[in-house]
Write a structure and sequence with these properties.
Layout (H helix, E strand, L loop, with lengths): L1 E8 L9 H9 L3 E2 L2 E8 L3 H15 L3 E7 L7 E2 L2 E3 L25 E3 L4 H10 L14 H15 L4 E7 L1 E2 H7 L4 E2 L1 H20 L1
Parallel strand pairs: 1-3, 1-4, 4-8, 9-10
Antiparallel strand pairs: 2-3, 5-8, 6-7
Helix pairs in contact: 1-6, 2-4, 3-6
Amino acid sequence: MTNILLTGFEPFLDYKLNPTMQIVENLDGEKIEDYHIIGRILSVDFQQSAEQLKRHIEEIEPQIIISLGLAGGRYKLTPERIAINVKDGEPDNNGYTPVDESIQEEGADAYLTNLPIRQMVNRLQAEGYPAEISNTAGTYLCNNIMYEGLVYAQQHEGVRAGFIHIPASFELAIQHGKIPGWHIRDLIAAVKLCIEETIRAGNH
């Protein structure tokens, strides 16, 4: 059995719940072909989340790393193309607000995902889910985690890593009041399709 590490985040900023947690908890333990999905929730903390991801990778030794993040306001599911070596933006849950910081001082400026993001988008659209490739993961925690996952993939042959931003769930959209949402069941189904496409790409 080959392991897939699927990560989400806890609630943050003015989002009182985070649907990535629900997706990860729902898919944790699922098996697709010879792959076992192991779900983990990360802290919304620049330092802690990176260390948590590294510990989970060390423990699980995944061949595939897919991290999920909430993009409140996006109305499509958006696999990310690139992670940049920058931390900047809103405070994390412990109040830390980096400005123009590097994720890794000696790291590359950026890494491109090696997930099959075009196939993901094509499959999602074929199945009736709005989706497109995103060319910016921002500079907040999502980009930070994507970058760290890709560093690991660069160092370990055959490992695939990347990041998918999801819209809000209906529940969060109602709570927030100013962002679009999807039904949580559709978010779960769409992420599962992305995982299936990643497995399929690796088998060819």
